[in-house]
Backbone:
């Protein structure tokens, strides 16, 4: 973890940077929790972003998220091994396909639909090439 007492980014000091990362992480956790209840709203990506922000700003919040009863195990697999459970891959691919269908129906520009489809294809390729579980574990 970087030492914030030696980092200065432009006019933002280490304390301000740490606070901004904690606020960003907290907003990501809130967005992730919303995703548990709202269909087609992603949860996992927000929790991964929160984990990243907390790893750089607050060991306490980072540990809390990693040991959370519901979110902890998949986040541990992601952080340690880059693993995404098979059920999460399936959910992500179905959500992206559904979102693309909505975009294709709602937007009448072939260019926009093509750009969204290309971006989603890259995301799907990335998701599907991640391991399903940590070595030696079943997730």
Residues:
């Amino acid at each position: 973890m970087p030492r914030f007492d030696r980092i200065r980014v432009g006019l933002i000091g280490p304390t301000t940077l740490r606070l901004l990362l904690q606020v960003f992480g907290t907003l990501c956790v809130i967005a992730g929790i919303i995703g548990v209840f709202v269909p087609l709203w992603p949860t996992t990506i927000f929790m991964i972003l929160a984990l990243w922000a907390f790893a750089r700003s607050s060991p306490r919040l980072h540990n809390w998220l990693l040991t959370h009863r519901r979110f902890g195990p998949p986040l541990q697999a992601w952080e340690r091994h880059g693993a995404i459970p098979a059920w999460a891959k399936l959910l992500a691919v179905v959500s992206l396909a559904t979102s693309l269908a909505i975009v294709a129906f709602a937007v009448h520009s072939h260019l926009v639909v093509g750009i969204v489809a290309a971006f989603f294809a890259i995301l799907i390729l990335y998701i599907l090439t991640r391991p399903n579980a940590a070595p030696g574990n079943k997730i």
